[in-house]
Amino acid sequence: GYAVDHKIDAALHGLGFTDNDFDLPVTALSGGQKARLGLARLLLSSPDLLLLDEPTNHLDIVGRRWLEDFLADEFSGSVVLISHDRWLLDRVVNRIIEIDRGVLHEYPGNYAAFRAQRVERMLAVERQHGKQQDKIRQEQAFIDRYKAGQRAKQARGRETRLERFKEGSLVEKHAELGVMNLDLPEPPPMGDFAFVADNISKSFGDRICFKNLSLSARPGDRIGIIGPNGAGKTTLVRTLLGDLEPDPGSGEIKRSPRLSMGWFRQSHDHIDKKQVAWEFLQSTIRSLEGSPRASEQEARNLAGAFLFTGEEQDKAVGDLSGGERGRLVLASLIASAKNMLILDEPTNHLDIPSAERLEEALQKFGGVDKTRVGGRGGLGGVLLLISHDRALLDDVCEKLVILDGDGNTRVFEGTYREWELKEKAERAAAAARSKKPAAKVSPVKPFPPKPSPTNSANSAVAGSRTPNNPRATAVTPNTAKTKNRFSNLPLEKLESRIADIGREFARIDIDLSNPRIASDATKTKKLLATRGELQKEQSELEEEWLRKSG
Fold first, then answer.
1. CB 68 within 8 A of CB 89
2. Nearest to residue 443, comparing CAs of 466, 477, 467, 408?
3. Which terminus of the chain is more exposed, N or C, with fewer CB under 10 A?
4. What is the model's pLDDT at position 367?
């Protein structure tokens, strides 16, 4: 009984409420706050079974971490979870049920295991589809040959059976299988910088959004902007790009006069709802052949790359779902030859295959094209990404701007995963200095790779949580005294090697997602073995980094 108040405070703080919010009446809360309050009440009621439908929709990154910790480590009941948050699924669940075209498919394990098994199933469907197409061609050849001769009656009978077969038994391939094959038009050059902000601040009355921020963006930069809900992330972007002026006397912003910006916002009211989907793309994208207007085929190729089937491409925009409409706008922006993209929560209404396809497209747009092994190859555009989607941030961005909600900002050169590692070390060091227990932080681990069809449910990713391994090994805290083979390396070399391993992971993951390599068992086994060795080395390096940085 005495723990009740403490549990309430922990749940409310974990889901983004401040002490000042505690005495507010529920009627004064926003829609998002009410959703989070309802979630806190549900979690604290200690039911035997939790039914959670997109519980992270209104949560910032800190809230998502807290929810993961609660479900994975504290809640003892059963959980049925509907979610598009890949990190949440990877950490919390041990069984996945997928609804695919009206059919249920069950997979043991977490999200990493699901991806591996799903690719195996999709490849099996593709092989079945190929055999069916061979049968159709053979039947059609017989029908065409004999429909006007002595065997015309037999040909007509086979034609009827063929039509029934097409309607009732034909399987479809999955559009997302394999690596995106997409060429993008070159954006116009912007010069040495997109913008340079020097010591700028922005406030509205007593509310400080950010202060004394210096930030620059060069061609090829992909910058993630993160922070609590209401911290001022969109305000920061609007200030950097000239929609809002910084506070008087706080500093200045220089922008390239050749900036060409595409902005993805939450509302798409500006779109003509009567326009057909492929025609909308044709009217907004740039032609790869240099003509002033893209061809119908170019528009349809782009739509196909973003997982629109032929039937969906011919739908009116107004008849598309919210997620489909968002995917259509994202495709149009990425192929519109803008040299700067601003994406505000682009995955909010996307399903998981669409979010992963967006990641592939953004890798081609940004400064480092991860689909080109061994180096740079992007188009030199600048990306500003506001998102709570940790998988998207970690896969796409290589620089972060972190807002804390109190006006303080930090610029971090590195991936989201590297930022979590650094933040964890700083919390542990601060707790050690104050002689208090370190605040609990979710285990830091890389997002699992694109799977190969030879992966098994329990070996998809080294260190992933599966039914046989319910808790992946977490990074050893910096208080550990155990030394390893990297104990003699200085901090700078440790950081450099950790970054190198991240790039090696990316190259291996690209190879594993290539169907030609995935179908070769020997190559796949060798790549997985290499990845396992790198995983082990990475764990030791991070352990030593935490020990030294503390």
1. no
2. 477
3. N
4. 46
